[in-house]
Amino acid sequence: MEKFFQHAAMTDGITVRVAVNFLPEQSRIEAGKWFWVYHIRIENHSDQVVQLLSRCWKITDGRGMVNEIEGEGVVGEQPVIAPGGSHDYVSGCPLTTPSGSMEGHYVLRGEDGVLLEAAIPFFPLAAPATESSDRRAPY
């Protein structure tokens, strides 16, 4: 089944697509914990083989607190993507607020040795309203 990608960014022939979903079954709203899963597809529309070396994420919660995360590869892999090919992976993001956002970039190396920063598009994290979050003072 083809995933519906809601957000996309293209940098020098590399397209990054994102689909994000709130997971109520992984969240503990009464404990102030919300959880999203995101599916990333990295497409190589360039004319050379590229390898994903690292990632840099900027995660912002609903209070405006920013957490920057850098690391090698994605979910333990440094995939090599041929021209016309793609790499998919799924990961998750917990927050202590019912909304926030993510964005960032990947560092890839082409077969010519040149490094490229491919943008990861900005995407919102928004939990649907819940009965407990919709309660109003009785007056």
Automatic annotation (TrEMBL):
Name assigned to this protein: Protein ApaG
Entry superkingdom: Bacteria
Pfam family, one: DUF525
Record-annotated ApaG domain positions: 8-132
PROSITE patterns: APAG
NCBIfam families (alphabetical): PRK05461.1
Gene assigned in the entry: apaG
InterPro entries listed in its UniProt record: ApaG-like, ApaG_domain, ApaG_sf, Uncharacterised_ApaG
UniProt cross-references to PANTHER family, sorted A to Z: OS05G0170800 PROTEIN
